[in-house]
Structures are given as structure tokens and as C-alpha cells.
Amino acid sequence: MPRAQLHLLPWLSFFFTVSHIIRSSYGDVGTSAQYPPPYLPTACYGGDAGQFPSSNLFAAAGDGIWDNGAACGRQYLVRCISAEQPRTCFLDQNIQVKIVDYVAMANSQPSETGTTMVLSEAAFSTIANSSATLINIEFQQV
Ligand SMILES: *[C@@H]1O[C@H](CO)[C@@H](O)[C@H](O)[C@H]1NC(C)=O
């Protein structure tokens, strides 16, 4: 290998280490509550029952991520990092949720107001004990 390229090796390995660290952590920290059925109609897609992913992992956007409706259809990776009630976070679980609603217009009340996103019961109970009402999350748009 020519000397000029050998000089680049430490920089390359530095670059890959940093990009690996960035990829294995999530973008933002926020809060989540949960909301029960009925989920229809939604602010994004009205009364169409086909809007929900078959996994039932979906969410309503809070004011912070609603983005004037541009949030509709966005997918987020979400995990629980801590909870108001001790030991209710399932720290090893991740979910991918689809935004289908706006919290302020949702058909049912969230377990807590003012959160970043409100998760469907199926989504919430995958990353936290369903008895919890408020959790802290890490989330990233995918
Ligand atoms: C959820 O919490 C309740 C009481 O706080 C506990 O009895 C139950 O075992 C927990 N469930 C899970 C799946 O951790």
C-alpha cells in the first residue's frame, strides 16, 4: 500500500468507530403516555381501519413532533429509558411505530398529558409495563 494511503488508516478507523457509536444510539429523548381504544377516527386518516399497521404498533404525535400534520405516516424507533413508576421500563425492547393521529385530536384520553408521543396500548405494553402511565423514551425517525 502506498504511504499516502497508510496515513489515512487511523482516520478511517476513527471515522468508523464514531459512526458506529452514532448509529447505535437514538436521536432524541422525550416522554410517552399510552391511550386506549377507540382509535378511530384519527386526525391523519379519518375512519379508515386499514391505516393501522398489523402489529398495532402506532402512536399519536404530541405538539413537539406533530409538525402541522407532516408527522402523519412517519415511522419512529422508540425505546423506554426510564419511567416515573420504578421498574416499569422493559429496557431491552424496541418498537417501530407509525404516527396515525394528533394527541390533541385523538378519540381517547392519554394516560398523561403533554408528552412527545402517545403510544397505542400494544406499543406501550411492548416497551413498558402497561400499568405505567408516563415513561421517558429515546426515539428516532426511520
Ligand atoms: C407489571 O406491574 C405489576 C404491578 O406493578 C406486576 O404485578 C406485573 O407482574 C408487571 N408485569 C410485567 C409484565 O412486568
Automatic annotation (TrEMBL):
Signal peptide: 1-27
One Pfam family recorded for the sequence: DPBB_1
Positions of the Expansin-like EG45 domain: 41-142
UniProtKB keywords: Signal
Database matches in InterPro entries: Expansin/allergen_DPBB_dom, RlpA-like_DPBB, RlpA-like_sf
Gene3D superfamilies noted in UniProt: RlpA-like domain
Classification via PANTHER family: EG45-LIKE DOMAIN CONTAINING PROTEIN (PTHR47480), EG45-LIKE DOMAIN CONTAINING PROTEIN 1 (PTHR47480:SF1)
The name this protein goes by in its record: EG45-like domain containing protein
Organism: Quillaja saponaria
Lineage: Eukaryota, Viridiplantae, Streptophyta, Embryophyta, Tracheophyta
